Amino acid sequence: MTISNKITDVLKHKVRYIQDTNQSLYLAGPIKLPVNLHGETHIFQWYCWVPSDALPNTTPGQELPIEALVARLSQASLAEMQQSSVLVYGDFEHADDAIIRFHSICHTGDIFGSKRCDCGFQLRQSMQMIVKQGAGALFYLANHEGRGIGLFSKALAYMLQEEGLDTVEANLQLGFSDDSRNYEEAILVLQSLRTNPVTLITNNPRKLQALQQSGANLSGRVPLWGDVSEFNERYLETKVARSGHLRTGSE
Q: Distance between CA atoms of 212 and 248, rounded to whole angstroms?
């Protein structure tokens, strides 16, 4: 496969190769993305990434020229895989402080507006918080469905929950851990986009711990609770009682 010099020039200035001692990936962006938030349009910059080990015939740690990268992508059937992305707002690179969220994909909550969880609320609210702050980023982590068990397994877990099991018990009964999500790729992208301090939007101490252990420049945490209803009350209480989620403050 050959691509024209014009196409090569466009892509090579918009795709970067990022690596650390454990992993490497290709980050595409920024791409202007006008987003509708509660009837107002806000301009974000969108990036998407793919791990280099998802590409066929790729040597670990070796950056591909853009022509070879495009050829590998066309052979990789990426539509059958999941890729993560990040929405960046404001002067994310240089602002004194910025607010970020690591948001795990939730097909039912984010897309369908399910009230069984608070994910859709947290997605929209965190984007609002980022706009209000003036600088920030929302990392949308596409391989995190059902705390890492995948959409079909999540459907099975929902069936068990309808029989009385809580979210933790359902995952465990299906042979999974309570939470198998990994944040290394998102942290690598974060560190490539910003070195100044960030404040993490989360109730989840595991996300906080992942950032702290990575050596990222973390200035604090803000909680994100809300949209409590009869449909998700037990789900939220299980997060606190079984998974150690933090309700308020900067614990």
A: 19
Identify residue 242 by its one-letter amino acid code: R
Under a CB-based contact definition with an 8 Å cutoff, are residues 26 and 49 in contact? yes
Residue 53 annotated among the catalytic residues of the structure: no
Residues 54-98 have pLDDT tens digits of 999 888 888 999 989 988 988 888 878 889 999 999 999 999 989
| Whether residue 179 lies in the annotated active site | yes
Give the pairing type, strands 198-201 and 136-141. Answer: unpaired
CATH code that applies to domain 5-144+181-243 = 3.40.50.10990
Quickly count: other Cβ atoms within 10 Å of residue 233's Cβ. 10
Q: How do the domains of the chain map onto residue ranges? A: 5-144+181-243
CA-CA distance, 187 to 215, in Å (whole number)?
Answer: 10
Catalytic annotation, pick one of 181, 227, 234, 247 = 181
**What pLDDT, in 10s, does the model give residues 181-194?**
999 999 999 999 99
